[in-house]
């Protein structure tokens, strides 16, 4: 297994305050990984730390054989794309224009799109079922449509690594499944390494290659079936409220 991202004894937080520590995992190239855990446990903080947006309190993050801190911001931009939950300031662009921004690392200073860039944009519009919306302004879109556009822009960037913070929050169940299946396809077919945070634990169990269960204690990391065998999901939520059924891989309300 080629280790693409290797995290050792990572401690994340703000200033002197540690949010989560003892985080250890290795992710191979071309895999889909979900980071799950209860509200406020540190999923977004971890994603921001992994991407180099904020420094770790201690520990190491190695990306493709090099410490993340040793990358320049421009070499990191060619290596990774990031989709955040924060609203973007560019909603007065049309859908196709926003997706075209994903090609900016490859265009000249005028942002002139070449035929390959245009082909990639067309492909993303098709893959994310956005063809009918391509000439709409982003401010005219629903939250779920906007979420798909932002993921399409990240994919248009064609970076080997993509981080997404809660990419399915605003989507209905069918679109959630559709997006996660697409992400899985990008990982397996195009060898993209994709890491995302989510509250969709049951969908992640079915669709991801690996999961990191941030729980403030063990922070278990493995393939979903391995985590089920180890009983790791049983302690993810308070047992008096929700219990995990290992047979079906789903959660049941405690009655
Ligand atoms: N900029 C910040 N400065 C200080 N503390 C912060 C900052 N951002 C987040 N925190 C704190 O860090 C902790 C983890 O927040 P984070 O957003 O990483 O959690 P999360 O697991 O992504 O939560 P959710 O599921 O609710 O999105 C929380 O206690 C939060 O209050």
From TrEMBL:
Gene Ontology BP, a term: iron ion transport
Which GO terms of the cellular component aspect does the record hold? plasma membrane
The entry's keywords: ATP-binding, Cell membrane, Ion transport, Iron, Iron transport, Membrane, Nucleotide-binding, Transport
Q: Where is the ABC transporter domain?
A: 5-241
- CDD domains per the UniProt record, alphabetical: ABC_Iron-Siderophores_B12_Hemin
Q: How does it sit in the membrane?
A: Peripheral membrane protein
Question: Which GO-annotated molecular functions does the record name?
Answer: ATP binding; ATP hydrolysis activity
**Where does the record say this protein resides?**
Cell membrane
Q: Which domain of life is it from?
A: Bacteria
Q: Which Gene3D superfamilies match?
A: P-loop containing nucleotide triphosphate hydrolases
Asked if the Swiss-Prot or TrEMBL record annotates the protein with the keyword Iron, the reply is: yes
Q: Name one Pfam family in it.
A: ABC_tran
The main location is: membrane
Q: What is this protein called?
A: ABC transporter ATP-binding protein
């Amino acid at each position: 297994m080629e280790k693409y991202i290797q995290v050792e004894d990572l401690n994340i937080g703000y200033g002197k305050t540690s949010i989560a520590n003892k985080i250890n995992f290795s992710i191979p190239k071309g895999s889909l990984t979900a980071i799950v855990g209860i509200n406020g446990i540190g999923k977004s903080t971890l994603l921001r730390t992994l991407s180099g947006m904020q420094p770790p309190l201690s520990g190491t993050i190695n990306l493709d054989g090099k410490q993340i801190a040793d990358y320049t911001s421009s070499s990191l931009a060619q290596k990774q794309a990031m989709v955040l939950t924060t609203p973007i300031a560019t909603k007065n662009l049309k859908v196709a224009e926003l997706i075209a921004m994903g090609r900016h690392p490859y265009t000249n200073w005028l942002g002139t799109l070449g035929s390959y860039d245009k082909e990639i944009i067309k492909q993303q519009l098709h893959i994310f079922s956005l063809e009918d919306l391509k000439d709409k302004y982003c401010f005219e879109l629903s939250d779920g449509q906007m979420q798909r556009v932002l993921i399409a822009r990240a994919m248009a960037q064609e970076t080997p690594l993509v981080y997404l913070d809660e990419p399915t929050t605003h989507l209905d169940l069918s679109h959630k499944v559709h997006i996660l299946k697409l992400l899985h396809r990008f990982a397996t077919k195009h060898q993209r390494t994709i890491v995302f945070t989510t509250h969709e634990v049951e969908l992640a169990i079915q669709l991801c290659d690996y999961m990191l269960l941030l729980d403030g204690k063990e922070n278990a990391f493995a393939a979903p079936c391995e985590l089920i065998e180890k009983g790791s999901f049983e302690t993810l939520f308070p047992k008096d409220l929700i219990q995990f059924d290992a047979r079906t891989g789903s959660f049941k309300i405690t009655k």
